[in-house]
Amino acid sequence: MSNLLLLPVLVPFLAGAVLILLRNHPLIQRVSSAVIMTVMLLISIQLLYTITTGGILTVELGNWSPPFGIVLVGDMFASMMVLLTSIVGLACLFFSFQTMARIREKFFFYPFYFFLLTGVNGSFLTGDLFNLFVFFEVMLISSFILIVFGGTPYQLRESYKYVVINVFASGLFLVAIAFIYGATGTLNMAHIAVQVAEMEQQGVINVAAILLLIVFGMKGALFPLYFWLPKSYYGPPAAIAALFGGLLTKVGIYAIIRTFTLIFVHDTAFTHNIILALAGLTMFFGVLGAVSQFDFKRILSYHIISQVGYMVMGLGLFTPLALAGAIYYIAHHIIVKSALFLFAGATQKITGTTDLKKMSGLLKTHPALAWLFFISAISLAGIPPLSGFFSKFALILSGVEEGRYIIVAVSLLVGLLTLFSMMKIFIYVFWGGPSLKRSDYAHIKLLPLLAPIIPLVALTITLGLFAEPIFVFSEGVAAEILDPSIYIDAVLEE
Amino acid sequence: MKTNFVMLHTVTRIVSFIILSFSVYLFFAGHNAPGGGFIGGLMMAGALVLLYVSFDMDRIKKVLPIDYTQMIGLGLIIAILTGLNSLVFGDPFLTQYFDYFQWPFMGEVELTTALPFDLGIFLVVVGVALLSILTIAEDVS
Amino acid sequence: MEILMILTGGIIITVAVYLLMTRSILRVVFGIIMLSHGVHLLILTLAGLEEGAPPLLTENADAYTDPLPQALILTAIVISFGVTAFLLVLAYQTNKAHDSDDLEELRGNADE
């Protein structure tokens, strides 16, 4: 029992509640949310340190012992995700100070920002399937409100679809929970894993597994279910789009990895091959979408889809090396993708558009912006020595070892096309003659815009340069989640 | 056109108080019997909506100068802080404590920490329900 | 009894899917509401129906129904209440901003 594990969920929740009361004091709101976010970063560093050195932490809410009560479980994977959430949350918060219209702050931007983080952290830390549903809903309801922020007709239209899709997915989630509860009589994930392993009827479990895959795939933008993503992520302001692009789909991916390494491991020939096929299709069609677009934010949105494919590919291969690669990839992706969306926001602030064909020549006027973007872009495409390279390398190596040559070929091709479309952005936006007059951009100070992005770019360089220790860490995480008994023992036997 | 809904007004004056007191009853009954913060809150929201429907909005606003968004925030804070007080005793979040007290006139009464938690839920539910209804209702352009 | 409940749930979900596929923005919201009702019924049924057993009221009950599904459904109802409230406001605002409740017109292919 350790109440440290509660803090990543409770601190933002309480902060959001208090900030509702302070809606008419924008300055207090800004200062206090910055302080709280920094505190959260420190808490999550402490949490990761405690768990890495001391093993899995659990908290039994309301002192009801599992499997009857709800437990929060923090293992290395979950605490790593919590840390990444705090990093991205801090960067996007500071970016929103620079770009968010002042009038919008009155409409509960900060409270819902923190409620969103509550939902995200809760989804990472919970050890109960129904509680996962509840935290998903906390996250989604806040995301509904953040995505419609500003209320332009475009946003209203696309958020409506986003909301309907997600609510439908939540309905399916409940169906899956009903199946699992009917079959196993429990909702505690560790206890479900025990029950499933002892069960003779695997058909029902496979049905529930596929239902959950559909649900999480819908939230995580897997192959046939990604159609909502590019349009809805195009609408909101850059700070929110960066937070969503970095985090929200990854919550779905986290849930897939968690359930398919803990619970549904009895029939990997069936489930994990489906996952692998979906991974290949997801990355291929996602990158094709990116290649065909000529809009900064839309290209990035399609790249989210194609990269979700890499993470799921690691799960589909289901070897320690592949999972370590997938975990490394998640860390790399969350940081780089948020940075790129913030770059899109910065260029939008400078040029007033996100259409690539209307921009050019920013390299001459804003060299710092250009080169920082270049680093992030080639990191995304997987050029050594940046972080994208090592994670993809592990995944591809594992694919070759397993003899899954089709997925290896697809992922190499997708890497090439990723590089192509990132270079397309670089060429259109930064090369050529300057499209702006000095008077157009002189009033926009570049440094405050870049300040929140620089740490993210520095992190991707660090993740690449210190690949060795970080890869060892990812292998530790992969070993932990590949052995469900560690998790089960930590939860059920105290 | 200003119409005078005599029947509606008369009925509302009586019925709304019955609903309001029933909602308070449901709220307190919730610990060991059907009821609770959510149901009581919905019932109270129903009574308030009835008031808003039968009398016009500005008048009710004068009588009940409540900011429902503040109410939601307050409810959340009450609920979270109730859960947090168990941390003081070193127990996990949301641990419930209860004891029996002898009160004058009322005899033995069970008091639990679930009650303030439910009060928080109650406030949030009333706030959310009325806020979403009034948001649409106020928008007459 | 189980068969009847499953069939009822199935019919409700069928209606929900039909409504979700209509072109009217408001009917889709009704579809979402119906879907959540059907799913709640399904939870209750799949968790097992007990005949003649009341909910757990006292500590020494001989027969009782499993209270957990009821708690789950209550939670799910609370959530769907919040989501529906939000969705109604959103549908209303969308309808007002675009001056149309036809989802075919709200596809938004024109501005790609």
From TrEMBL, chain A:
Membrane-protein topology: Multi-pass membrane protein
InterPro entries: CPA3_Na-H_Antiporter_D (IPR050586), NADH_UbQ_OxRdtase (IPR003918), ND/Mrp_TM (IPR001750)
Main location: membrane
Membrane-spanning intervals of the chain: 6-22, 34-57, 77-95, 107-126, 132-151, 163-183, 203-226, 238-257, 269-288, 300-321, 327-347, 368-386, 406-431, 443-467
Source superkingdom: Bacteria
Keywords: Antiport, Cell membrane, Membrane, Transmembrane, Transmembrane helix, Transport
The NADH:quinone oxidoreductase/Mrp antiporter transmembrane domain, residue ranges: 127-417
GO annotations of cellular component type: plasma membrane
Pfam families in the record: Proton_antipo_M (PF00361)
Alphabetical GO biological process terms: ATP synthesis coupled electron transport
Subcellular location: Cell membrane; Membrane
GO molecular function: antiporter activity; NADH dehydrogenase (ubiquinone) activity
Family label: Belongs to the CPA3 antiporters (TC 2.A.63) subunit D family.
Protein name: Na+/H+ antiporter subunit D
Species: Alkalicoccus urumqiensis (Bacillus urumqiensis)
Species lineage: Bacteria, Bacillati, Bacillota, Bacilli, Bacillales
UniProtKB/TrEMBL annotation, chain B:
Record-linked Pfam families: MnhB
Alphabetical UniProt keywords: Cell membrane, Membrane, Transmembrane, Transmembrane helix
Transmembrane segments: 12-29, 35-53, 74-94, 114-137
Membrane topology value: Multi-pass membrane protein
Record's subcellular location: Cell membrane
Keyword Transmembrane assigned: yes
Keyword DNA-binding: no
Family matches, as InterPro entries: CPA3_antiporter_subunitB, MnhB
Top-level taxon of origin: Bacteria
Residue span, Na+/H+ antiporter MnhB subunit-related protein domain: 7-130
A GO CC term attached to the entry: plasma membrane
Signal sequence interval, chain numbering: none
Family: Belongs to the CPA3 antiporters (TC 2.A.63) subunit B family.
Protein name: Na(+)/H(+) antiporter subunit B
Organism: Alkalicoccus urumqiensis
UniProtKB/TrEMBL annotation, chain C:
Keyword Metal-binding: no
Transmembrane domains' residue ranges: 6-21, 28-49, 69-92
Locations listed in the record: Cell membrane
GO terms under cellular component: plasma membrane
Gene3D superfamilies linked: 1.10.287.3510
Leader peptide range in chain numbering: none
Primary localization: membrane
Keywords, ordered alphabetically: Cell membrane, Membrane, Transmembrane, Transmembrane helix
Annotated membrane topology: Multi-pass membrane protein
Tree of life domain: Bacteria
Family: Belongs to the CPA3 antiporters (TC 2.A.63) subunit C family.
Protein name (record): Na(+)/H(+) antiporter subunit C
Organism: Alkalicoccus urumqiensis
